[in-house]
Amino acid sequence: MGNELLTWVNSHRLMSIILASVAMLGLGLVVLVALMRPPVTAASIETAATTTSQASRTSVTKRSQPSVLKESVSGPIYVDVKGAVKQPGLYRVTAAMRVADAIELAKGLLPQADQRQVNLAAKVVDQQVIYVPVKGEQLPAIAAPAATSQPETATTAGGTPKAGSKTTGAKGKINLNTADVAALQKLAGVGQKKAEKIIAFRNEHGGFKSVAELKKVGGFGDKTLAKFQDQLTV
């Protein structure tokens, strides 16, 4: 076998030289590339890991920011819908909604509602009072929620605040034409149901013309009127 290989090399000497040269050239290129490559150190590994970690955190932050912003802008708020609507009450809305949407939640306007005094396009705000007057009724002032520490303000049906407006009249008397359920319940013996009856009568008849008209509301007689006479106004 050795003699045959030697015989082949002798007869193909040129081809053998070429193959040997190619092999040496390839080995030289491998060694050259290895020498030119920078050494891998612990510092370079740590730098690469830190860069990857920072990129990951940045990506997570960018993904989470829109959802947080969206939640804060469109979070639930509450408005108090009163007056000539089918179902007055407290309703949960969003910042993107309008007065018209809040009235729709209250099952719409009553036939006697004066829509001309209502700005249906106004945006709702948290703790807003939306009051819908009946035809012929002068738009009353509605007090701001007692939970706020700011000076009392009122919100009309159009959503415009009126500074200094109150549910009470002179000398702290409760106004039958502007007081809400909570204010009416400050009267001794008046619970939520009786307060709602007062407001329903007010909405039906376009407000109270005098305190004496309270006797026309079911559950209120001469004795009750005499007891509340000094606490009420219109």
Keywords, please?
234 residues, 3-stranded mixed β-sheet, two-stranded antiparallel ribbon, rod-shaped
Strand content: 5-15%
Shape: rod-shaped
Major sheet description? 3 strands, mixed
Order of helices and strands: HHHEEHEEEEHHHE
Query: Would you identify the regions where 5 or more consecutive residues have pLDDT less than 50?
Result: 66-72, 143-166
Radius of gyration (CA) equals: 42 Å
Q: In DSSP terms, counting alpha (H) and pi (I) runs of 4 or more, how many helices? A: 7
Task: Return the CATH class of the domain at 74-166.
Answer: Alpha Beta
Category from helices, strands and their pairing: alpha/beta
CATH fold descriptor of the domain at 74-166:
Ubiquitin-like (UB roll)
Helix content: 40-55%
Strand order of the largest sheet: 2-1-3
Question: What's the β-strand tally?
Answer: 7
Any guess at the CATH architecture of the domain at 74-166?
Roll
User: Span between N and C termini?
Assistant: 128 Å
Q: Provide the residue-averaged pLDDT.
A: 73
